[in-house]
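Narrative of activities, Objective 1.

The group set out to show that a structural description can be obtained from nothing but a protein's sequence at a throughput compatible with the screening campaign. Below is one input-output pair from the validation batch, recorded exactly as produced.
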Amino acid sequence: MFFLGIDSGTQGTKVLVIDLKGRVLGRGYSPHRRVENLKPGESEQQPEDWVRAMETALGSALRQARIDPEKIVSLGISGQQHGFVALDRTGRPIRPAKLWNDTSTIEETEILVRRLGGKKRYIRKLGIGLAVGYTASKILWLKRHEPRNYARLHTVLLPHNYLNFFLTGTPVMEYGDASGTGLMDIKKRVWHREAVSAIEPALRLKLPPLRHPAEPVGLVKKSLAVRWGMKRVLVASGGGDNMMAAIGSGNVVPGICTVSLGTSGTIYSYSPTPFVDPEGEIAAFCDSTGGWLPLLCTMNVTNTTEILKELFGWTNKDLERLAGQAPEGAGGLLFLPFIDGERVPELPWSSGVLFGLNRQTFQPSYLSRAFLEGTILNLGYGFSRMRALGLRPSEIRATGGGSRSRLWLQILADILQTPVVTLAEQEAAAFGAALQAIWAYETDRGKESAIATIVAERVKTGLRPIEPHAGSGAVYRSLQKRFHSLWKTLRGEFKAHRTFSVSRPGDPRAV
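Output recorded for this entry:
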């Protein structure tokens, strides 16, 4: 028997075919298209394109796997979080989906937070704050800006829910992805009536029922199964990409953290109880196993190193080689990597800073080292916040483009003072969706299977962890304090600079 893991992300869809032991037999990929000619801050895609990409990637994965599709018994779907898919009464999308990185809803976010009594009261009531990218503000945006479309709204779904709906005809949400809407009480795991009513009381009839992630959605419709050469295929609950990547990286028990070093940076860990940050800096999501997933997100990691490489015409090898020539701490050269503003710490109008340039540090090796260290020092702020709130990390599992750099991972281990391991399967979200599909299949057949056991037997890590260097802790603790002191000192200057800065084309933060 075989299982499918499908990851429908922002850039495209990836599909993995695995066997019961978790071995990857086939891979497929198809890119997504963006809706063009939008206003600054808007980011949208057509849900129908996700379906097309899924079918194309599925075909490629099946051809590579060379298996009989009739032996596929279950699948799971990972999807980009926080998107808003608006369906009419017939189940068809009313308009393109607004994505997680759509920032056109700043005003709607402020309205909803104000209606619930402010940021801290919002967090006390729901257990989670309302970020600009969350689904709730997108729904209010539709009501305020496109009232005719809002009048047609019958069902609210998120991206992975829409693909589940396409496959089964059943509209539901599991706890993990639903917790990122800003409309769910993450402690009680129910829709929050006051938050829903802040948009419109009748909206509660348009939100799908919530289910535990152990409950499958249903079966692939017969017409689709026949078209794909399949028989009876169970559809697992699926979840948001971070929730699925947690499963795919083995992050389903306390003590394990996952770090993604991509364009942005994320750190998240499993918690058996609600993990609520009263300041809202750490997102208090539910996960897709039945627990919770406290998550830190920063906006600037590989986007900063890509700029540096492009400026000097360097490759990834050049960057790592040069950075390796500079000492730990880069001679005191500090890089505040706020190229695209920052979410945590909350500095949306900030900009990048190089502090400590002198005749020693003003050279390529020190600049390279400072860039790598600055991105991790930035993560260090939120990581220390997670620790202060009770996180007890024993191991970090690294994914994303930055995880291919041994030096970057060593810096990660040194600054966060935690061992770092790599993963045998880097497509953690798609792999996690496939592992969840195994869990759903075994549960459906009456087998008492624990997701932690399924994951522990199938997620493989590198043979040796990257341990923090002896003595590095003192160097980086001092640098971390200076990093925090610098951005706090400059916080007012960032706001003042906003008035005089020249906005980038299409920048939603333009004044």
